[in-house]
Design goal:
5-stranded antiparallel beta sheet, 4-stranded antiparallel beta sheet, 4 helices, 33 strands, 40% strand, binds fe (ii) ion
Length: 480
């Protein structure tokens, strides 16, 4: 009889970080170690999946869980923590029923429901950004939910003054132009005949100022994009969505995705303005990109910086809590494209390969030349067995690699995009904020690092009174 081969557990206690009932709270943080910088005034927000079990049913996939937003408000009086579930239709109906009702990204079950029989009823669990005087929580391919920026109470779906509706595809990765506060985002409308990439630009009040449509050859599952002063940039990997299976066979999104590396990846460059110039695309190997780091233009050269995986990572987000069991290396990679010849000029990978994700930069440098970025990494990447993020890596294009790295002790994990908060009084000085989950002690905290010296370890620890789920994307809003 063949015996099952046990894979090593490289993430002891990880189940304690996922499988518990999150409680909504709001309190002043006490027991802070280290000194919070006096200039750090504003709000940190993070969104992430926080409910994986209900009435004996457990979700399979990290993306299935209901979104919960946490905030840290830094004032002269101290630091206030608040967390609250995003009150989506899905959450409200499932609370009332006492059971999961809707199909998840990675979990389908007999009798599960969809929104208008068409799409997932979104758990709104991916990202959260302040915009137009309010706070917006984003999920995949759906309208954001508007939250009260202080209490995190859900106000309802945000439809940009009626310009979008509840079936408008809208990604979870809007970009904010630091030049004018515009929000730019995309959504892919899938159709058997011709999938269409829609790009929207809203001014700082949320009014639609521009919309463009670009036909794409294949039904790409695409999560993120890059913004420059003149272009929107898409790294389209051959991870393709089969709606025949999703609608016809009642399977999850995860089971409807096909990875076809032989079709190759392409970088699509779409003009942002009303220039006569048309969109174009160039071949870009066979890698997979979930997140871009940043893009910018200098003269006729376009720089596209991404985290490039060898294969899609979604399969590694399951089964909860045994994540990343077979995850493959990933590198930060810089592509430089000549906009005049429309050709790839160079491809510059960094050596760092610890499957980094959740890249972050100074938000003032989105679409502009920059050198520094931060991301989470997995030290045991490449080895078998479940594992999780346990490195905070600071990359620099000037140095060409990651030379500044923080490694947690065993049994401690990091969560949430490592957000950069700049010192408004000292250019180049800033802190990085990240979640810390200690599975040995079951304690959770937020950590503040010196952004350009993360290897020193945390400057400040903000302990919570309870456990915390690992978050996805985060943002920082300096006090105005
Ligand atoms: Fe993302």
């Amino acid at each position: 009889m063949p015996t099952e081969i046990e894979t090593p557990d490289r993430a002891p206690g990880l189940e304690l970080c996922f499988l518990f009932d999150a409680v909504e709270e709001s309190y002043e943080i006490t027991g802070i170690t280290g000194r919070v910088p006096g200039w750090l005034r504003g709000s940190y927000y993070v969104n992430g999946p926080a409910r994986f079990e209900r009435a004996g049913r457990r979700y399979k996939h990290w993306l299935d869980g209901d979104g919960m937003v946490c905030s840290l408000r830094f004032t002269e009086q101290g630091v206030r923590f608040t967390n609250r579930f995003v009150a989506t239709r899905k959450l409200r109906e499932e609370e009332a029923a006492g059971a999961f009702l809707y199909r998840g990204f990675g979990t389908a079950f007999p009798g599960d429901r969809l929104r208008r029989n068409l799409m997932l009823e979104p758990p709104v669990n991916v990202s959260v950004y302040p915009f137009a005087g309010t706070l917006l929580a984003f999920g995949e391919q759906t309208l954001p939910m508007e939250l009260d920026p202080a209490t995190l109470e859900t106000r309802g779906e945000f439809d940009f003054h009626g310009r979008l509706n509840e079936v408008s595809p809208f990604a979870a990765h809007p970009k904010f132009d630091p030049a004018n506060g515009h929000l730019i985002n995309f959504g892919i409308a899938f159709s058997a005949k011709q999938p269409m990439l829609n790009v929207y630009e809203f001014d700082a009040t949320g009014t639609l100022v521009r919309r463009s449509r670009h036909p794409i050859e294949m039904p790409h599952s695409n999560h993120d994009f890059g913004l420059t002063a003149g272009h929107c940039v898409f790294f389209l990997s051959p991870l393709l969505m089969d709606f025949g299976r999703f609608w016809g066979e009642g399977v999850s999104v995860m089971e409807s995705l096909r990875w076809e590396p032989e079709r190759g990846s392409r970088i699509l460059v779409a003009p942002r303005g009303s220039k006569a110039e048309a969109a174009f695309s160039i071949p870009a190997g066979q890698g997979y990109c979930l997140h871009l780091i940043n893009c910018f233009e200098e003269g006729h050269m376009l720089t596209v910086d991404i985290l490039e995986l060898e294969a899609p990572v979604y399969a590694e987000y399951q089964p909860i809590p045994d994540l990343f069991q077979t995850v493959r290396p990933c590198h930060p990679v810089r592509y430089r494209i000549d906009l005049e010849s429309r050709k790839l000029a160079e491809r510059l990978p960094m050596d760092y390969d610890r499957t980094p994700d959740f890249p972050a930069i100074d938000p003032c440098l989105v679409s502009r030349a920059y050198t520094d970025f931060w991301m989470l990494g997995i030290s045991a990447s490449g080895a078998p067995g479940r594992k999780f993020f346990d490195q905070l890596a600071h990359g620099s294009w000037r140095q060409g690699d990651v030379r500044d790295l923080y490694q947690t002790p065993a049994g401690e994990y990091l969560g949430g995009e490592p957000v950069y908060a700049a010192n408004p009084q000292a250019r180049g000085e800033g802190v990085v904020i990240v979640e810390h989950l200690n599975a040995r002690t079951e304690e959770a905290a937020f950590l503040l690092f010196d952004a350009v010296d993360v290897k020193r370890g945390p400057l400040v620890r903000l302990p919570l009174r309870h456990r915390l789920h690992p978050g996805f994307h985060a943002s920082w809003a300096a006090m105005g």
